[in-house]
Amino acid sequence: MEAVDYLAEERRKAEFDVEEMKIVWAGSRHAYEISDRVSRLVASDPVFRKDNRTMLSRKDLFKDTLRKAAHAWKRIIELRLSEEEAKTLRFYVDQPAYTDLHWGMFIPAIKGQGTEEQQQKWLPMAYKMQIIGCYAQTELGHGSNVQGLETTAKFDPQTDEFVIHSPTLTSSKWWPGGLGKVSTHAVVYARLIIDGQDHGVHGFIVQLRSLDDHSPLPGITVGDVGMKFGSGAYNSMDNGVLRFDHVRIPRNQMLMRVSQVTREGKYMQSDVPRQLVYGTMVYVRQTIVSDASRALSRAVCIATRYSAVRRQFGSQNGGPETQVINYKTQQSRLFPLLASAYAFKFVGEWLKWLYADVTQRLEANDFSTLPEAHACTAGLKSVTTSATADAIEECRKLCGGHGYLSSSGLPELFAVYIPACTYEGDNIVLLLQVARFLMKTVSQLGSGKNPVGTTAYMGRVEHLTQCNCEVQRAEDWLKPSVILEAFEARAARMSVACAKSLSKFSNPEEGFAELSADLVEAAVAHCQLIIVSKFIEKLQQDIPGKGVKRQLETLCNIYALYLLHKHLGDFISTGSISPKQGALANEQLRLLYSQVRPSVIALVDAFNYTDHYLGSILGCYDGNVYQKLYDEAWKDPLNETVVPDGYHEYIRPILKQHIRNARL
Ligand SMILES: CCCCCCCCCCC/C=C/C(=O)SCCNC(=O)CCNC(=O)[C@H](O)C(C)(C)COP(=O)(O)OP(=O)(O)OC[C@H]1O[C@@H](n2cnc3c(N)ncnc32)[C@H](O)[C@@H]1OP(=O)(O)O
Ligand SMILES: Cc1cc2nc3c(=O)[nH]c(=O)nc-3n(C[C@H](O)[C@H](O)[C@H](O)COP(=O)(O)OP(=O)(O)OC[C@H]3O[C@@H](n4cnc5c(N)ncnc54)[C@H](O)[C@@H]3O)c2cc1C
């Protein structure tokens, strides 16, 4: 059989209806149709070509990004695309650009923190891209500690203006995407100072560049922060540095939904909690969870297809060698990642619902679910991005040597993805926020206030800290109730243990700092419980299509038992399961790998990614890997000449030195 036939053969083995699974993956038939149509539109447009991207210099890459963003906007207008279609188009263009921040943070910041009047003034211009904005919060000296920001916005009652100023080097804005070279405006976070009194950090809309010739306005120094990790990758983005020298803006450019400054300079706080100033971050963290499933599924698609094509060892009587996907070690590294991609997809859908729910409540002045929304978005952003970053690197290794080639698509995917562990909140800092929320929940147990939502299980803490796992045979691990209870017991016991240790400290903040490593682990256990439970909930829905639900059940069990195996120490040390039950879980996991094996190519086909989007020779749909790798090598600029540039200056003199030496 030719390499090109391997995947066709694999596709014949699928034990479910792939077309129906595509709809489950997309979220709905409507979403599937948009995604399918728009991804093909992008793939067939030569302007969106990206196969030479990693070869471009920074300047050429940036110009290429500007060209693509302008072309994307032109197509959006020409084709009258809806908001959802336009977002899908930008996603499939697959090149980080200033537009991500304009649509993803600048507009949401105005929507979430601006008054009705401010929204009416600024949003129409932003929607038409008559102004382009970014989100300027982080500074050279402070990112995680938002309360430590130093940029000031002093109210001047004489002129009814704020004076925005960068008092120190460390107060320079540093990192905002789109700021370096493109944005005309920014939502700038600065300390509000009125009459010498510091009212903390607030958002302000500040114009940075002229709308006529793009030059920085007086008092503004702005530029790019420089090259980042990897070739291509996030270097298409103009992350920027910005300093203000007493820049004046009208009073009505402070975002005033949360608090207001009157003409007289009076500071007024509305009923809305001040944490809403952080609302844009909650919104973006939620979108980052869905992005994690996309990045992970992309890497997994590449590694799975290639693992079915690649053969090593095991030839018998001159027959073909073994497909590397049939090695149990390959399966135990790859299949949990496939299951994780589906798990993150479903938890992302749920988080989107949670965010919509909290937004609706906020509009009705119900702030009760805000702390949970903050904890869930922070924790799930952290857990899913860390797992995805690790998984992309694992996929590279699963592809052996060829995974290290740029044309595998994996090095660039890794480089572009890993900052997700840092931006929108460093993952450890975010887990500590979850830990605080958990400790508060535990401390309130018994006070008559029953925990709700994702912490409802804590309401059964007495049972969960005493229960014994009922597993006696490997197949007992297939019961959703058994899995759930094991994860709940582990999470509850870890949180309660931390709370007990904390209570021994006379100063709780000191205790929190001392125990922070354990607290982070308790937060991870809680977030993993959420992901497992949302996967199980998804399976309670009506899911049409031959064999679709069965495949998802297998993937759900793989995800849960893989986590259990990986964190066996937690489960056993908390007494949530016994060592014997841990061994049975592993036995079941092996069986599940065999069960899912015939369907894995179809399960990655269900992502419905075009070859253009995948950007990987190893992951191409037809599996014609070797021919494509061979052809691609000859396209490298080094192969434009047989004898390289530099031969005469640097190679020949070395080769000839023995002649000179001999003459001496
Ligand atoms: C096609 C693709 C489109 C994609 C579009 C997106 C593209 C993304 C590209 C990436 C761009 C990246 C952008 C950025 O990185 S922007 C900068 C992000 N910065 C951060 O995330 C900073 C992290 N730090 C923080 O969030 C906070 O400062 C921190 C939570 C750490 C604050 O801690 P702390 O408790 O010390 O301080 P506070 O006094 O401010 O908070 C006290 C209480 O407030 C609660 N809290 C905190 N944050 C929130 C929140 N966001 N929402 C609700 N509540 C919050 C906290 O729990 C405390 O509550 P209690 O008093 O009840 O305990
Ligand atoms: C590619 C990229 C794009 C970005 N885009 C934007 C943007 O558009 N707009 C914007 O405003 N910002 C942006 N940022 C900035 C980003 O949000 C911050 O870098 C991020 O929030 C982390 O903050 P930091 O850099 O201050 O890290 P630090 O807080 O300095 O982290 C350094 C280390 O200290 C640890 N640490 C910090 N605090 C604690 C603590 N309390 N307890 C324990 N450990 C701690 C962290 O875990 C980490 O290991 C971007 C960053 C990147 C990399």
State the gist of this model.
By secondary structure, this protein is of the alpha+beta class.
Structure description:
By secondary structure, this protein is α+β, with helices and mostly antiparallel strands. The protein has a domain at 107-270: Butyryl-CoA Dehydrogenase, subunit A, domain 2 (Beta Barrel), CATH 2.40.110.10. The protein is built from 24 helices and eleven strands. The chain has helices at residues 3-12, 18-26, 29-43, 58-78, 83-93, 98-113, 116-127, 279-309, 328-363, 370-398, 410-417, 427-443, 461-464, 480-503, 508-514, 516-539, 548-566, 568-573, 579-596, 600-605, 611-614, 625-633, 647-655, 657-663; strands at 133-136, 152-156, 161-165, 173-174, 185-194, 197-207, 220-224, 240-244, 247-250, 259-261, 267-269. The strands form three sheets. Strands 1, 2, 3, 5, 6 and 9 form a six-stranded mixed sheet that branches. A three-stranded antiparallel sheet has the order 4-8-7, with no helix packed on it. It has a two-stranded antiparallel sheet with strand order 10-11. Strand 2 (152-156) and strand 3 form a beta hairpin. The termini are far apart. 45% of the residues are buried. Bound molecules: ligand L4XM7KOE and flavin-adenine dinucleotide. Ligand L4XM7KOE is lined by residues 90-91, 100, 104, 135, 137-138, 143-144, 146-147, 177, 275, 278, 281-282, 284, 287, 370-371, 374, 423-425, 429, 433, 436.
Q: Biggest sheet: strands, sense, closure?
A: 6 strands, mixed
The number of distinct β-strands equals: 11
* SS class: alpha+beta
Q: Any idea what the CATH superfamily of the domain at 107-270 is called? A: Butyryl-CoA Dehydrogenase, subunit A, domain 2
Cα end-to-end separation: 61 Å
Average pLDDT metric: 97
Q: Give the name of the CATH architecture of the domain at 107-270.
A: Beta Barrel
- Runs in which pLDDT lies below 50 for 5 or more consecutive residues are none
- Kindly estimate the percentage of residues that lie in beta strands according to DSSP: 5-15%
CATH uppermost class of the domain at 107-270: Mainly Beta
Bound molecules: ligand L4XM7KOE, flavin-adenine dinucleotide
Shape: globular
Radius of gyration: 27 Å
Tally of separate helices: 24
Helix content: 40-55%
CATH topology of the domain at 107-270: Butyryl-CoA Dehydrogenase, subunit A, domain 2
